[in-house]
Amino acid sequence: MTQADRPPSTLAELTTMRVGGPAARFVTATTEAELIDAVRETDEAGEPLLVLAGGSNLLISDDGFPGTVVIVRTSGIEVPDASACGGVTVTVAAGEVWDDVVAHACEQGWSGTEALSGIPGSTGATPVQNVGAYGQEVAQTIAQVRVWDREEQRVRTLFADDLHFTYRHSVLKDSMVGPAARAGAVTPRHVVLSVTFSLRPTELSQPVAYAALADGLGVELGSRVPLQEAREAVLAQRRNRGMVLDPADHDTWSCGSFFTNPILSAGDFETLRARAVERWGPDGPVPPQFTAPDAMVKTSAAWLIDRAGFSKGHGLPGPAALSTKHTLALTNRGDASAADLVALAQEVRAGVADAFGVSLVNEPVLVGLSL
Q: Start and end of every FAD-binding PCMH-type domain (predicted)?
């Protein structure tokens, strides 16, 4: 465990949104033992703790963080078993850059994560919110997650069934709202140490499950294509939406999708549809409808935002604006503060609630902030 030789002056340097004030202390952990020690020592001292790796799912206050920030820089990709039930078991350290892991899997001929190409952040963050895109979720391939349990003060292994994955959710994310969070902690009860995936040894992708991706590839839904072709097609889709990090492109100075797609009861969705008819008449736009578990209905946050009057680039020429490529992304146009971005998020959320009666939920974790 080391105090960084040249620690960042602010948390803005460690997040993809590029906002956030200073911290009381920065510690960099390059091994699993260092990570556990840093977390344990900070907890024993009773200090506030923020564990940060890729910084792609955080919006941090302009006041910064009044405690210790542990920067996760652990590394390693191991293949303990390449023959289990015809699959490949791959264990990845929490600090590994996620897109590097996906690229490596495609190069090795391991399918199951190719549609998750280009997603920023670290591997350790992927199970927390069940990262997903273009028809894939990490829940489909995660076999187990090793964590440091801050309450029990021990390393634990959580298997897929223990994690209770749902859309953009897991038991790891649930622990953010437990007793520790109410006491002021920012990190969850479980600090991810490594993630083990069960991938398939094949040079072809898993069946293409997203219409726009299939169109880009020129194939039918359900087709399988060479892994590298699938990866490049996903990256092209994400670039078109400003979702591949590029320091020169302010549309990528974001947390990705800022709001999750609402999941409504059948009755609430009918109310939403009635609001749309009231707004535009029976031949007007219809809210997208997708089947969700437990007889629920998922609809599109991007559709709601756009139809509530917030088009791409809304907020320009101000310091914070919706992406010019994708209405779901709130972006820093170069010198935005966290307060600017919170004000924009509040404006969008209030506008959607007023237009459609649906309350949008933020996807990134807010540190020292609230909507």
A: 19-202
